[in-house]
Structures are given as structure tokens and as C-alpha cells.
């Protein structure tokens, strides 16, 4: 299986519409790939909080239209990263879109874990509530977004739902790049799954981005890693390695669930 991760430089001097056209051309250039992955909030920038409201769009808005056409033109499965979605009730969500090679919207995932603690995304956007998987001919994708990477229980849930390849668009800051690499490998090892993590380059609202998109196999080996700037990271991998790894080292079968909360001991 061939996957291309497009690590987009989100330049604040480039208009959203211009970036949509440019990214559409980049996707079309990946004809021949099985799967193309874009980063988180590449239309506006993951840390450009002031633009979330003005740049928000419905699921069937201009990014949907542009990326559906690009996926169809290239004949690829396209994880189009995420957009600031405005729901019918006005709530904003950080929502990922997945298109089939015919340009149909197959899945939408609203980010569950919002970053910012008491500011930014955490207060401006609603939280998703549903785990989302997507069945491709070669593998089943499990969807997460950026900050989700820090919460292993989400990915356990995806594995229980059949996920074999974990796809994670992100706008990860440079100052925590070591965590990005470490956690991507940890999620791969503990779930015995491939991890395809696609970040952004450039600077969003004064926050330098980590870049370094990465593909990790079920043993935690890094198959490919990008640099800091805009780059297309392409890798060939064998989805069958997930089943082989889980058979050879069946650690997932030894999970112990439903443990009781310990009682407080009193002297």
C-alpha cells in the first residue's frame, strides 16, 4: 500500500482560498497513491484561533467541494485533514473529512480531545463523541486528530472497532516535537498498528510548527519521517504486517479490562 502525507506550510500571507487551490493541486499530483493524508486545520492554522469563527464552514462547504474533486481527479482515498466545521446549531468543531477515490465523503470525525485547557480550541469548539473507522480495500483506518495522540484509550477503542492503521492529522508545535515522535511510536507499539501522523509546517499565530510527519509500523519502527518544511512524505507499507505482528506477539489478548477502583486504605 502506498501512502502520501502532505506536510503543508500554512503561511499566514496566503489566503484560505489560494491554499485550497494549491493543496488540491498537490493532491492531484499523488495519483497512483492508495491513500493521501493532509494535516489538521490547514485552511486556517491550528493555533490561529481568531480565524476559527470567520473561516468555519459546513461539512459540504468549499473545502469539501475542493477536496472531493481532488480525490476524484487523483483516484485516491483522501484523508483531507480537518476543517473548522460550523454545525447546523452553530457549534464549531474540529472535523476531519475522508473521501473515496470517486470523491464521495465517506466519513467525518469530530475531534474528541480539544487542546488549550481554558482557552483556544478547548473553549471555542465543541467536543466530538464518536469513534470513527473507515474500511479501505487494504486496511481499516482509525481516526484521531493531534491532541488525541496523548490519550491512549481512544486508540484502544479504535483497535477494538477493527482499526489497523491509525491516521492522525495534526498542527503540532515545534517546542513539543519530541513528544510527537515518542507518542506516535508508543501508539503504534501498544496497538500493534501502523501510525500515519501528518503535521503542518510554517508558523500559526506565532507558534512554529513541528513538521516531521511520520509513519510508524506495528513494531514501532519509523518507516519514514519528514523534515521541518513543506514536504510530501511517501511510503510503501504492507498492511498485512498488522495481522502478522498480532499473531507473533499476541499482547492485545492479555489486556485486563474492568478493573475495580481500589478502596482507600485507612490506618
From TrEMBL:
<keyword id="KW-0378">Hydrolase</keyword>
<dbReference type="Pfam" id="PF00795">
    <property type="entry name" value="CN_hydrolase"/>
</dbReference>
<dbReference type="InterPro" id="IPR001110">
    <property type="entry name" value="UPF0012_CS"/>
</dbReference>
<dbReference type="GO" id="GO:0016787">
    <property type="term" value="F:hydrolase activity"/>
</dbReference>
<dbReference type="InterPro" id="IPR036526">
    <property type="entry name" value="C-N_Hydrolase_sf"/>
</dbReference>
<protein>
    <submittedName>
        <fullName>Carbon-nitrogen family hydrolase</fullName>
    </submittedName>
</protein>
<feature type="domain" description="CN hydrolase">
    <location>
        <begin position="1"/>
        <end position="239"/>
    </location>
</feature>
<comment type="similarity">
    <text>Belongs to the carbon-nitrogen hydrolase superfamily. NIT1/NIT2 family.</text>
</comment>
<dbReference type="InterPro" id="IPR003010">
    <property type="entry name" value="C-N_Hydrolase"/>
</dbReference>
Amino acid at each position: 500500500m502506498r501512502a502520501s502525507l502532505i506536510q503543508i506550510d500554512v503561511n499566514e500571507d496566503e489566503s484560505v482560498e489560494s491554499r485550497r487551490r494549491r493543496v488540491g493541486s498537490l493532491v492531484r499530483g499523488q495519483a497512483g497513491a492508495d491513500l493521501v493524508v493532509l494535516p489538521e486545520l490547514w485552511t486556517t492554522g491550528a493555533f490561529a484561533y481568531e480565524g476559527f469563527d470567520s473561516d468555519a464552514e459546513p461539512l459540504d462547504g468549499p473545502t469539501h467541494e475542493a477536496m472531493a474533486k481532488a480525490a476524484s481527479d487523483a483516484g485516491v482515498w483522501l484523508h483531507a485533514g480537518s476543517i473548522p466545521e460550523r454545525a447546523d446549531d452553530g457549534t464549531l468543531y474540529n472535523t476531519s473529512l475522508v473521501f473515496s477515490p470517486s470523491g464521495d465523503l465517506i466519513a467525518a470525525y469530530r475531534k474528541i480531545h480539544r487542546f488549550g485547557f481554558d482557552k483556544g480550541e478547548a473553549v471555542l469548539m465543541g467536543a466530538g463523541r464518536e469513534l470513527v473507522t473507515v474500511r479501505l480495500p487494504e486496511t481499516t483506518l482509525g481516526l484521531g486528530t493531534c491532541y488525541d495522540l496523548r490519550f491512549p484509550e481512544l486508540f484502544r477503542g479504535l483497535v477494538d472497532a477493527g482499526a489497523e492503521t491509525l491516521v492522525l492529522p495534526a498542527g503540532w508545535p515545534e517546542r513539543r516535537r519530541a513528544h510527537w515522535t515518542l507518542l506516535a511510536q508508543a501508539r503504534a507499539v501498544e496497538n500493534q498498528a501502523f501510525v500515519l501522523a501528518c503535521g503542518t509546517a510554517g508558523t500559526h499565530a506565532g507558534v512554529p510548527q513541528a513538521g516531521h510527519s511520520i509513519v510508524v509500523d506495528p513494531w514501532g519502527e519509523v518507516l519514514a519521517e519528514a523534515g521541518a518544511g513543506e514536504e510530501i512524505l511517501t511510503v510503501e507499507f504492507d498492511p498485512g504486517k498488522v495481522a502478522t505482528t498480532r499473531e507473533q506477539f499476541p499482547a492485545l489478548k492479555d489486556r485486563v479490562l474492568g478493573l475495580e477502583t481500589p478502596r482507600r486504605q485507612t490506618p
